[in-house]
Amino acid sequence: MRFFPKMAAQLAMVFPGMASPFSSYLGALSEKPFLVGWSLCSFLPSAAGKSTKQSCDAIIARRLSGLEEAIRIRRLREQQGTTKVRKRPPLKRGKISGPLSVPDHIPKPYYVGSNQLPELSSEYQIHDAEGIAQMRAACELASRVLDFAGTMVKPSVTTNEIDKAVHNMIIDAGAYPSPLGYGGFPKSVCTSVNECMCHGIPDSRQLQDGDILNIDVTVYLNGYHGDTSKTFLCGKVNEPTKRLVKVTEECLERAIAVCKDGASFKKIGKRISEIAERYGYGVVERFVGHGVGTVFHSEPVIMHNRNDKSGSMVEGQTFTIEPILTMGTIDCVTWDDGWTTLTADGQPSAQFEHTILITRTGAEVLTKF
Fold this sequence. Notes:
With 369 residues, the protein is of the alpha+beta class. It has helices at residues 6-14, 19-29, 60-82, 129-151, 159-172, 239-256, 266-278; strands at 176-177, 190-193, 196-198, 212-221, 224-233, 282-283, 289-291, 298-302, 318-321, 324-326, 332-334, 341-343, 349-351, 354-358, 363-365.
């Protein structure tokens, strides 16, 4: 493996403040390419201003690797800034049909029948073996429903059609669609298109080629809620938007990787922020993850941005992680329906969500896609 002359130019591009010392020495070296295996310190000036002769450990490969990653990320950011994304018309609400009915024999959560938004429960949901088994069942159903809903994401399909299919699949399984009637929410699933951050209400709008759509499914089965969401691509989506979706999913996966018994909750936001910042994306602060189990929303509040939240995870605990990333501002506006929340600048956003179970050595993803 050889060290080519363009290295000096690459260093100057990534580290502009260091361009002069690097370019002078690496420029001279460019006449005689050398084998990887020597550190740059072998060829840079000593404190006395003279070239050193001693060899260093074979660490040049690691430095090259880090440099290549820095160059890749810089080019990615430049591409994001220069790529022209076809401007889509602002999202407009379609016609919202009435809520679908649920058979009387299916058990319903306590909040059904009241338009009052329930307060966040202070209960930390930590389960015994029976509770864990029930959570697995509810989350497995939610995952299957979400997978099925994703197969419907095609141009010309309406989000209302997706809502109906989701509703029927859930009640056929003997479960209740948790969003239906929660604080007056009129539908059985949340469908958030393009710049809609979350809580989009299914309606008559047809999906368009190039849209992205987050589908958020929660089911209530045998007294337990299973909660999950995923952002799907509709037709031919442009590369910058596909990248946003991919990185958002990566943020979720990497955040789950830091979870285990005794880990601090703030590690989640730190990990997500590190990845999002690397690609120049914003992390929405307003919407958070939450405890889930016999109660739909409870403590702990899971913040996805950098934070100083106290508290640690406990074995047997279940909660959601559900980051929302944006291409632009993290500020938002909410329609007068009280639910549909969009990015303030109209730029796309993406979200992924899993319900996880904390174990002694890590975290079990209960809602695997």
